[in-house]
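Technical note accompanying the year-one report. For the benefit of new consortium partners, we illustrate the data format agreed upon in the data management plan: each record pairs a sequence with a structure-token string. No post-processing was applied to the example shown here.
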Amino acid sequence: MNTNPAGNGEFGRRPSPPQPIVPKTASEALRPETGTPPPRRSRASRSQLVVFMNFIVSSVILLVLAAGVAVFVGKREFESVGPSRTAETFQVKPNSGLIEIAEQLERRGLISDARIFRLGVRAYGSDGSLKAGEYSIGPGASMREIMELMRSGRSVAYSLTIPEGLTVEQALQRIAANEILTGDMPAAAPPEGSLVADTQRIERGMTRQQIIDKMQADQKRLVESIWSRRTDDLPLADINEFVTLASIVEKETGKGDERSRVAAVFLNRLERGMRLQSDPTIIYGLFGGKGKPADRPIYQSDIEKVTPYNTYQIDGLPPTPIANPGRAALEAVASPSKTDDLYFVADGTGGHAFASSLEEHNQNVARWRAVEKNQAGESSTAPAGAETPAGVAVPVPAAAPD
């Protein structure tokens, strides 16, 4: 029995009436049917802020990628082989900035790009750490290698040699003529004997005053160190007399094995109140720091000429040194040989013959005169003084002084 009053069937729904069949033409049957439309975009997705933020994020990503590529390429260029094909020297002047250094390097063809060099130096935290100096840059040096070199300060080193026995004036002439150094010479010369006789390490751009100051400081330390270790009871009043006698010993002989014996002769003379009778003191009294011309001998009139330095005419030591003594001469005076020698004269071999008595000394003199005569090839009397092959004047072989 049907209990549905509406007559809608078992579930109460009335069946929909059948749809009429509409015939289609052949072209309509082949036409594709309209698909299901896409869902409608939400209002949030259409917001301008969201669109802008999407653009920003995309731009940031692109920029990060571009920066990464730039850093990679720049780092590779910074550390790769440089364009130079030969070793070059490059000077960084004091107070030079990074921009100036980079541009000069690029102009010299030592780096490929000044901008990459600047950025690389700053990336390594070395901006402001590049030191002034002259640097030797090897062929193919990378920008990083150049940076490390300038940061280390390992600049090219030159040398300036001041030999033992030069006067201060002669030493200053060498300093003034050196083209590596800069700046003016001092208005007043340092005291005689106050410059160290040594080879100085110098760098381009150093001033002449700096070198002179260093040489004075080095000599002061050297003299004070050796003076503090001197033998007891030396007949020397003070450190100035010590340097003065060392300068005379320096000028008397260039042979290392003779210095302490020559020093002993002069010290023995001082103890006995004998005049030193040293030819180099005559020369300094006549010519000062300029030195004697090489072709001029010492004449008898020179020996008789009274000057504050002529130890044939004065008692004791001259008022100042006559040259810059080296370490060996200073040590020879501080620790002289144990000998009774009072005389020495050239022996014709570049050295000297020593004697403790006037008789023995006169025999040595006679032998030296014979050598002079043979060397001159004539019988005429030689000048009062003579030069050793090294150019160092020796004492005049005369009778024992008072």
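Partners are asked to follow this layout when depositing records. Residues 233-376 form one domain.
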